[in-house]
Amino acid sequence: MKKDTVEIDLRELFIRIMVNIWNVVLATMIGGLLMFLLSKMVMTKKYNSTTKIYVLNQQDATQITYSDLQTGTQLTKDYAELVKSRTVTSQVIAQLDLQHNYEDMKNITPDQLAGMISVNIQNDTRIISITVTDTSPTRAQDIANAVRVAASAHIYDVMDIEAVNVVDYANLPEGPSSPKVMRNLIIGALLGFVIAIGIITIVYITDDTIKTPDDVERYLGLSVLGSIPYDENIDTTKKKKRKAKSASAKTEAAVAGSDK
Length: 260
Hints:
The chain is α+β, with helices and mostly antiparallel strands and 260 residues long. It has helices at residues 10-19, 21-42, 66-74, 76-83, 86-96, 98-101, 110-115, 137-158, 181-206, 213-220, 232-259; strands at residues 47-57, 117-121, 127-134, 161-168. Helix 2 runs antiparallel to helix 9. The termini are far apart.
């Protein structure tokens, strides 16, 4: 069974794109503008506040051994689980009274609060970075500090360590961490560009109208013996004559009606 194949003339497609280049530019600008407006007016702004703690093992506190560094790397997941544990998140919710002090958090659960927390341990260190993401910069800072206090006590109770010291208190975010307006603008512009090119390509592929003698041979497999030239000026003149006759007939009919 013979399968239909679609031949694409890249040169002709490129010409088609260049003919519609302003439509492509317009689609690119509209895509970028839409994503810019969505980022500024629709998407919820979120803020990151980060605090850091230092975990001191049960040994000589004056030096850090290779074993300490290796242990810190291996316990990354353990520390992350302890920081985001239900014990810590429940304590933070109760300490800050999140369910009563904030209308948008009246139904918050420990698991939901844990979803707002991210934990990162830098390579070859025992420094734990705790980042809280929230829609309010001040609340993000308050929650981060509360998580640090509760997590430090929980880590001290569960792990065999000497102490948990504060490296950095939570900062007050100066600006939103998301949405990233410029990144979204670029993504929107690229999407608009791709969609415009895609539409032009689809229209080009599906357009099987006969425009030139070459199209007759390409689509119908027939040889062209001759062609009749088409003069647009003659066609335009005929249309003007028809309109003039029609207007003249209407005028005569109007005059006849007035005579009666």
